[in-house]
Write a structure and sequence with these properties.
- The complex is a heterodimer of chains A (224) and B (267).
- Chain A has 7 helices and 4 strands.
- Chain A is elongated and about 90 Å long.
- By secondary structure, chain A is mainly α.
- Chain A has 2 domains: 2-91, no CATH class; 96-220, no CATH class.
- Chain B starts with 7 loop residues before the first strand and ends in a 28-residue tail after the last helix.
- Classes of the chains: A mainly alpha (224), B alpha/beta (267).
C-alpha cells in the first residue's frame, strides 16, 4: 500500500473469497470499514481525529419498503448525502462512464466493420459470378429472379454464419478463466445475434445492386 | 421477302456506335431470313459484326435502325423487360464458355430453362431427362458441369437451348473451347436437333470446318452481309479451307464422327 511517497505494509488476514466482486474490471478486496479508514490514502496530512469518510454506502432495504419515504428519511437525517438507486450509483463511479463509452464505441465500430467486411465478402462472391449472372440474364432470367436469388443466398449465408459463430463463441466462453471480465447474458447475446443477422443483408445490398447491373451482353463478351 | 415466311427476319438492320462524324457501324444494313428447321452459319473475320448481329437477334442489343422480327414479333419496339421475357420464351442460347450454372447438375441446368418460364412440371422434367438421354448423356444426368467434358457441357447447353420449344436457337462459337473431334460431334448433334425439332438455328463461328453441317452460310465483312452460300459443294469447299484465321486446306475427318443421336427425322 502506498501512502504519499512512503511505502507502508499492513498485514491483513484473508477470511474468505467471494465471487463476482470487481471494481472497474479490477478484482476488489472487502475489508471492515475501520480497517479501510486506516488503510486508505490520507491525502498528505494525516488527520487522526477526522470523521470516518465513506463515498458510497449500500443500504439493503426490507422487502416491500417504501423506497421514496426511506430516501427522504436518510437525506433528512444524514448531512451531505444523496440517495440514488443502484444503477445510478455504479454509473456514477469514477471512470465508469468513460470506460463504458470506450467499450460501446468498440462495439459499434465492430458492427460497422462487420458491415464492411461482410459486404466486401459478398461483393467478391458476386464479382466471381459475373459471367454466370450475365449468362442467366442472356437466357432470360429477369432482374427480379437474379435479385431474389442474391438476397436469399445472402440471408442463408448470414444465418448459417451467425449460427456457427454463436455456437463457437458459446463454446469458447465456457472455457474462459473466471478472471476474464465478460458476462454472456441472454439479452446481450440476443442483441449481438440480431445485429449480426441485420448487418449481413445490409452489407450485401451493394452486391445485390451490382448483380442487377450485370449486362446480359457479358455472355457474348460484348458488355460495354 | 414475304412476311412471316421466316422464323427470324431482319430488314436493313443497323447497329451504330458513337455520334456525329465518329459514328461506327458495327452492323450496317443487314437483311436476312431464316426458316424453321434451317441451320445457318454466320461467319466472318473478327470485327465483321457477326457477334453484334447475334446479340441483336437475341434481343440483347437494340438495333439503331431497321426491323428485326422473331416468330412474328418486332423486337425493336420492346422494352428491356419485354425483351428479357421474349428471350426466355422464344430463344435458345448456347455460348462459348460459362454455359452452365456450376452448382446445378446437368439435368437441373436443363430444367432451369423451364423453371425460368414457370413450366417445370412432371412432363417438363421427363422431357429434360429424355432430351439429355438422346444427346448421349443418360448416365450423366446428376453430374455437375465440372464432372463433364467440354463436349458434354456443350451438349447439356444444347439441351437447355431446346427444352422450352424456342422459335430460334442461337449458338455463339459453340466449338471455341473444344478439341477438333468433339467440335465436329457437337455441331453435328446441334444441326440434327435443330432440323428434327424444326427450329431456326444460327451459329456464329470462326471455324469454317463447321459449316459442312449447315444449310446455308452467311458471310459478313465490315458490318455488311458480303456473301450468301447455299450450294452444298461451295459450302464443302469453304469447310475444307479450315479455320478463318488460318486459311489453309485441312483434311475433314472422313468418315464423320459417330453420332450420339438416334436417326434424325426430317419433317
Amino acid at each position: 500500500m502506498f501512502q504519499d511517497t512512503k511505502e507502508e505494509f499492513y498485514d491483513l488476514t484473508v477470511v474468505g473469497i467471494s465471487d463476482g466482486r470487481q471494481y472497474n474490471l479490477q478484482p476488489s478486496v472487502m475489508v471492515p470499514f475501520r480497517t479501510w479508514d486506516e488503510l486508505r490514502p490520507q491525502g498528505g496530512q494525516s488527520a487522526p481525529n477526522a470523521e470516518l469518510v465513506a463515498n458510497l454506502v449500500a443500504v439493503r432495504v426490507a422487502e416491500g419498503s417504501d423506497l421514496a419515504a426511506m430516501a427522504d428519511r436518510i437525506e433528512s437525517q444524514v448531512a451531505d448525502v444523496e440517495v440514488v438507486d443502484r444503477v445510478t450509483a455504479y454509473e456514477a463511479t469514477p471512470g465508469y462512464s468513460a470506460q463504458q463509452s470506450t467499450l460501446d464505441t468498440q462495439r459499434y465500430f465492430a458492427l460497422l466493420i462487420g458491415i464492411l467486411v461482410i459486404g466486401g465478402f459478398f461483393q467478391i462472391l458476386t464479382l466471381q459470378k459475373v459471367a454466370q449472372i450475365g449468362m442467366l440474364k442472356a437466357i432470360g432470367a429477369s432482374n427480379f429472379v437474379v435479385g431474389t436469388a442474391a438476397i436469399v443466398q445472402i440471408i442463408a449465408v448470414t444465418v448459417i454464419g451467425v449460427a456457427l459463430g454463436a455456437a463457437f463463441t458459446l463454446a469458447l466462453s465456457l472455457g474462459f478463466p473466471p478472471t476474464v471480465p465478460i458476462v454472456f447474458s441472454p439479452a446481450a447475446i440476443s442483441a449481438a445475434i440480431l445485429s449480426l443477422l441485420l448487418i449481413g443483408p445490409i452489407g450485401g445490398l451493394v452486391s445485390v445492386r451490382y448483380s442487377l447491373k450485370v449486362e446480359p451482353l457479358t455472355a457474348l463478351g460484348l458488355a460495354q | 421477302m414475304e412476311r412471316n415466311m421466316f422464323a427470324l427476319e431482319t430488314r436493313n438492320v443497323v447497329k451504330a456506335y458513337g455520334t456525329g462524324t465518329s459514328v461506327t457501324k458495327a452492323v450496317d444494313g443487314v437483311t436476312i431470313g431464316v426458316r424453321s428447321g434451317e441451320f445457318v452459319a454466320l461467319v466472318g473475320p473478327s470485327g465483321s459484326g457477326k457477334t453484334t448481329l447475334l446479340a441483336m437477334l437475341a434481343g440483347l442489343l437494340k438495333p439503331t435502325d431497321g426491323e428485326l422480327m422473331i416468330d412474328g414479333q418486332e423486337l425493336g419496339q420492346m422494352s428491356e423487360a419485354q425483351r428479357t421475357a421474349f428471350r426466355r420464351q422464344k430463344i435458345g442460347f448456347t455460348f462459348q464458355a460459362n454455359n452452365l450454372v456450376p452448382y446445378l447438375t446437368a439435368l437441373e441446368n436443363v430444367e432451369l430453362m423451364l423453371r425460368l418460364n414457370g413450366r417445370l412440371d412432371k412432363a417438363g422434367k421427363a422431357r429434360a431427362r429424355d432430351l439429355l438421354e438422346r444427346l448421349g448423356l443418360g448416365d450423366k444426368l446428376n453430374n455437375l458441369p465440372r464432372q463433364l467434358s467440354g463436349g458434354q457441357q456443350q451438349r447439356v447447353a444444347i439441351a437447355r437451348a431446346l427444352i422450352h420449344d424456342p422459335a430460334v436457337v442461337l449458338a455463339d462459337e459453340p466449338t471455341a473451347s473444344l478439341d477438333t473431334e468433339r467440335a465436329f460431334q457437337v455441331v453435328e448433334t446441334f444441326a440434327a436437333m435443330i432440323r428434327e425439332q424444326n427450329r431456326a438455328g444460327i451459329m456464329v463461328t470462326h471455324d469454317l470446318r463447321m459449316v459442312q453441317y449447315v444449310d446455308r452460310v452467311l458471310q459478313m465483312r465490315d458490318g455488311k452481309m458480303a456473301r450468301e452460300i447455299t450450294d452444298r459443294d461451295e459450302i464443302f469447299a469453304m469447310a475444307s479451307t479450315g479455320l478463318h484465321d488460318a486459311p489453309v486446306a485441312v483434311e475433314l475427318p472422313r468418315p464423320a464422327p459417330q453420332l450420339v443421336l438416334e436417326p434424325v427425322v426430317v419433317r
